[in-house]
Design goal:
It contains ten helices and no strands. It is mainly alpha-helical. Its main location: membrane. Keywords: Cell membrane, Membrane, Transmembrane, Transmembrane helix.
């Protein structure tokens, strides 16, 4: 009985604060900002990777980002991304690419603002510290994708060497597609923990972040499948939005993901508040 009461209180707190503190508006802000930051980030990261000789980066980044999206949502954007990224650029150190990196960091700032609201904390760090941290996140993401792109290039060769020397490992090797999905999932999990740990103001125990992140992953999976079925079976965005159908589908999809992400932070905050309240009650 106590468990049921605790669950009701936590859910009421999380959903109530999400609704009362402009959670729906923040989800819209996060979705639009994420979409606007996507192209600058990929342009910046691909240009830097090309400068370092990693020409396979663009294809790897597209797969890592879009392989976990429903195909109907991802395909039009992925095609445009590939078209943009295959344009040869030699302006790594010019203002254009530097500004692309700066604009990409706006997406990190939107995530920070959303998590600060979800965790009910006020930002105390300076503007310069926050912006430096956001740009650092962009650079770390670029470096991570760069390492993964190199790994995926050499993965087939390493797989053949392993299979030639260890026959028992063959059934466990899978295909390059399986590796891509596995790596994309690992990147998402690592990214969620990173933003929940370092972006919002204050510090929270690592274990306290797990419920919200598990909720986010599960709800993203369920929500993506439901939205994909909705798009395939019921919605007709082409009739309503004509040439804007692809971008509208992407915006709605990102809005759903953003709302779920913020709710994950709200859930963590509600659990922490409940535990603190319980700790103050004398035994």
């Amino acid at each position: 009985m106590r468990t049921i009461v605790a669950i009701k209180r936590v859910l009421y707190d999380a959903l109530g604060h999400f609704n009362d503190d402009d959670g729906w508006a923040m989800a819209s802000h996060l979705a639009i900002t994420a979409l606007m930051a996507l192209f600058p980030f990929l342009i910046f990261a691909t240009t830097l990777a090309s400068f370092l000789g990693a020409d396979a980066f663009a294809d790897t980044a597209v797969h890592i980002i879009f392989d976990t999206w429903p195909q109907r949502v991802a395909q039009p954007i992925a095609d445009e991304v590939v078209r943009v990224l295959t344009v040869r650029r030699t302006d790594l150190l010019t203002y254009g690419v530097v500004l692309a990196g700066f604009f990409a960091s706006n997406g990190i700032e939107a995530v920070r603002a959303s998590l600060n609201r979800a965790y009910r904390v006020s930002e105390t760090r300076s503007f310069f510290y926050r912006r430096f941290q956001s740009i650092f996140f962009v650079l770390i993401a670029t470096a991570g994708f760069l390492v993964i792109s190199v790994f995926l290039v050499f993965a087939p060769l390493l797989a053949r060497v392993a299979e030639a020397n260890f026959e028992w490992i063959t059934p466990y090797m899978g295909t390059i597609t399986v590796w891509r999905y596995t790596i994309a999932t690992m990147v998402i999990i690592l990214g969620l923990f990173s933003v929940h740990i370092w972006l919002p103001s204050g510090r929270r125990p690592l274990i306290s972040l797990v419920p919200g992140i598990v909720f986010t992953l599960a709800a993203w999976l369920i929500g993506s499948n439901i939205f994909a079925r909705y798009i395939d079976g019921f919605a007709n965005y082409v009739t309503t939005y004509a040439g804007l159908a692809s971008i509208m589908i992407a915006i709605v999809f990102l809005y759903i993901l953003s709302a779920i992400f913020i709710l994950g932070g709200e859930l963590n905050a509600a659990i922490l508040r409940y535990r603190e309240a319980r700790a103050r009650v004398p035994n």
